[in-house]
Amino acid sequence: MSVQPEDRTTIDMFSSSGPGRPRSNPYDRTQQSRLNKRSQRLRDKHAGLHRLEVKLPAHVVAALDDAADELGLSRAEVITKALEQWLHI
């Protein structure tokens, strides 16, 4: 019988218990990150969001952060509102 990384029932069948804190998640850190990222992408997709990467000069990002702090919003929310206003959406 082999142990599959995604198999939650036999994950500790062949491992020896050692000192330290017990594992709260049967997956190792790389698999946890991969699964979390996948679920985040699915949440964004169901919410109708699209990923967009933009490179901006440092002074623009600083001004964006200042505006976000003043408005109590995130960077993405400030950019979205600015683009909606500029595009008259």
UniProtKB/TrEMBL annotation:
Residues 50-87 form the Ribbon-helix-helix protein CopG domain. This is Ribbon-helix-helix protein, copG family. It comes from the Bacteria. It comes from Thalassolituus maritimus. Residues 1-10 have a biased composition (Basic and acidic residues). Residues 15-24 have a biased composition (Low complexity). InterPro entries: Arc_rbn_hlx_hlx, CopG. One of its GO terms (biological process) is regulation of DNA-templated transcription. Residues 1-40 are annotated as: Disordered.
